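REQUEST ID: PR-0412
SUBMITTED BY: lab tech R.K.
PRIORITY: routine
TASK: structure prediction, single protein chain
INPUT:
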Amino acid sequence: MEFSEHLSSDRKATVRAALNEDIGSGDITAMLISEKEYASAKIISRESAIVCGRDWVDEVFRQVDNSVTVHWFVADGQKVAPDTVLFELRGPARALLTGERSALNFLQLLSGTATTCREYADIVAHTKVKLLDTRKTIPGLRTAQKYAVTCGGCHNHRIGLYDAFLIKENHIAACGGIDKAVQRARDIAPDKPVEVEVETLAELDTALAANADIIMLDNFSLSDMRKGVEVTEGRAKLEASGNVSKETLAAIAETGVDYISIGALTKHARAIDLSMRLAR
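STATUS: complete
OUTPUT:
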């Protein structure tokens, strides 16, 4: 299944789960309002952000009441200033209020992820490096956050444990060495990319000899990263990983590695401040 198909099916399921946990047996507060009452609402960003999550908002109101119309003024990936109106809702007042929190929860989290990614991407814009996410995502929102990463100008690593090999220290020990681990990976799934994590320049040489596609330089010093780039000479892609921060990012990118993986892109994302104003 392609990522876009995963994304679509996951979105429907996660929205359904979010609504189930919020609405439960029914929105008793919304029952204060006549079912015949119609309203409109504007959703505003209270801060600068990269927008992400339009399809999740649309899906929330599609499942709550498909008579609600959602009119967007911005696109995913667009940077907005504080007090920007992001979209407008029209429909039964009950439905607008019932869907509000779930819709904004998705939008504020995914916009927060995209905004974080844009901040990191801007730091290395002067280099050719690609910033990668990791599997350190919020459970149940893997594909959503991975989509948000791309809206923020960064890139996806493997989606899960099924679409690429990432051979780490314990895998290597269990297989009896880097060369044996890589060979077994080729035998199991010759069409899947094989990445090997190494901790020393000597292990880098071994991974190169084993013809790994990508080699992760785990917690290498800057000088060893530069040596690794020189030694590799394009025979494999190199990925830097471990304790990457905004303060260290530019120096790592300037060593010449191809990729830098950063768990903070998804696991440290904060929600963007949004608000909804209802009008009858």
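NOTES: The chain has a mean pLDDT of 96.
REVIEWED BY: pending
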